[in-house]
Amino acid sequence: EVKLVESGGGLVQPGGSLILSCVASGFNFRAAPMDWIRQTPDNELEWVSTITPDGSGKTYGDSVKGRFAISRDNVKNTLYLQLNDLKSEDTALYYCATGLDRGQGTQVTVSS
């Protein structure tokens, strides 16, 4: 059974930073491309970023490019998302995902 557990969300001021983590189990993590997606307060699902299995390839949505950084540790079966220069429009429930599976999400709220 695929299990993805996100953590690291919270309330942060505009311009602040957070690191999100996602611990994966139940599948061959080191062979899987991994994604971060987010659900906005309007319930829109937005793709944020994808990383290749070996971590060499990383892609980002236009709204986060240059501010967010995806990474992974294939020994720890953990996916990360570094969020920098946060803006109010980054407020969302952040999920890690592989294929059609995703975790329960971690809430990021950007507000002064």
Q: Summary?
A:
This protein is mainly beta. 0% of the residues lie in helices and 52% in strands. It is built from no helices and eleven strands.
Map the helices and strands:
Elements: E1 3-7, E2 10-12, E3 18-25, E4 34-39, E5 45-51, E6 58-60, E7 68-73, E8 78-83, E9 92-98, E10 101-102, E11 106-110
Parallel strand pairs: 2-11
Antiparallel strand pairs: 1-3, 3-8, 4-5, 4-9, 5-6, 7-8, 9-10, 9-11
Question: Could you characterize the architecture of this molecule?
Answer:
There is one protein chain. The protein is an all-beta fold and 112 residues long. It has no helices and eleven strands. Strands 2, 4, 5, 6, 9, 10 and 11 form a seven-stranded mixed β-sheet that branches. The model has no long low-confidence stretch (mean pLDDT 97).
